[in-house]
Design brief:
Largest sheet: 3 strands, mixed
Radius of gyration: 23 Å
Strand order of the largest sheet: 2-1-3
Shape: globular
Helix content: over 70%
Order of helices and strands: HEHHHEHHHEHHHHHH
Number of helices: 13
Strand content: under 5%
Structural class: mainly alpha
Length: about 325
């Protein structure tokens, strides 16, 4: 009877101990002494990202000339960028500045959910913007007929729901794991695999599902973007006028830059984790992971502001007055 009673109590105690109430985010391992210096570019980029994307959302909402499908998709991208970087960077700055490293288990799961959901949505919105450019260049006369406000809203909602439905299982897969390797996470935020690696149980399901989600979201979106731009290139090359070709290409410049800013750090992280984990230091992985969350939100408003004439005109009208636009355009 005593042995049976002990066998019942011990598993209950172990289960309690193996479900941590808090995690410790250690920031960037190996560079703890440089945290304060690393925080300055992080903070500067975050401020630019918040101001730039809020500015874009304000312009698109208030300017009637920007009430078009291209700018509605840009508004989705800006909103996604704001949530994506705000889910991780404020906590990282608290770690760098105030050594506030603790995060509760539930807060960690929530942060993980928002970061992965909106990085997936970032990819999805870039795919929708590629389809928008395809319709605008290949079917210009039917552009407003095909891309109605209803279709844009439904496609944005579908992209968001895709991310939510695919990322929600991450939280359950992570929560079910027993944790016996401490509660210190060598990262600035709660990444799915960084948390799972603290488990003393098997994480094969987590790893396989994570790879599957990456292929379902990233692989599908990259395929759609590639097909869209292949069709765009064929349509542009067939144009007889050099000016028409130049104008068609120029409408895609900002979007191509956004793709480069988003997918370059993502590809680096993906391949370095699988093929370069013995040669590339962990600090480099974590810095790139943060750049992935910071670079697109920082650069997208700048690139679209510089490359899009309608946005430039609206900015000039706000700061200089309507009568200065004619001289600006000349």
């Amino acid at each position: 009877m005593v042995n049976d009673h002990t066998n019942i109590i011990v598993p209950l105690l172990n289960q309690t101990e193996l479900s941590p109430s808090t995690f410790i985010l250690n920031g960037i391992p190996g560079l703890e002494d440089m945290h304060i210096w690393i925080s300055f570019p992080f903070c500067s980029m975050y401020v630019v990202a918040v101001v730039g994307n809020c500015g874009l959302l304000y312009l698109i909402y208030h300017e009637d000339s920007l009430h078009r499908p291209m700018y509605y998709f840009l508004a989705m991208l800006s909103l996604t960028d704001l949530v994506m970087c705000s889910s991780a960077i404020p906590k990282a700055l608290c770690i760098f500045w105030f050594h506030l490293k603790e995060i509760s288990f539930d807060e960690c799961l929530a942060q993980m959910f928002f970061i992965h959901t909106f990085t997936g949505m970032e990819s999805g919105v870039l795919m929708l913007m590629a389809l928008d450019r395809y319709v605008a260049i290949c079917y210009p006369l039917h552009y407003s007929i095909i891309l109605t406000s209803s279709l844009i809203a439904k496609s944005g909602l579908a992209t968001f729901l895709r991310g939510v439905l695919l990322i929600v299982p991450f939280t359950f897969l992570t929560k079910r794991l027993p944790y016996c390797r401490g509660n210190a996470i060598p990262h600035t935020y709660c990444d799915h695999m960084s948390v799972a690696k603290l488990s003393c149980g098997t994480i094969r399901v987590n790893a396989v599902y994570g790879l599957m989600v990456a292929l379902l979201i990233g692989g599908f979106d990259i395929l759609c973007i590639t097909v869209s731009y292949t069709m765009i290139l064929r349509a542009v090359v067939s144009l007889s006028s050099a000016d028409a070709r130049q104008k068609a290409f120029s409408t895609c410049t900002a979007h191509i830059c956004a793709i480069v800013f988003s997918y370059s750090p993502a590809f680096f992280s993906f391949f370095s984790h699988r093929f370069g984990h013995h040669t590339i230091p962990p600090s480099c992985h974590i810095i790139v992971a943060n750049i992935y969350l910071l670079l697109p939100p920082t650069m997208n408003p700048i690139v679209y502001g510089m490359k899009t004439k309608q946005i430039r005109d609206c900015v000039v009208r706000i700061f200089s007055g309507p009568k200065d636009i004619k001289s600006y355009n000349m």
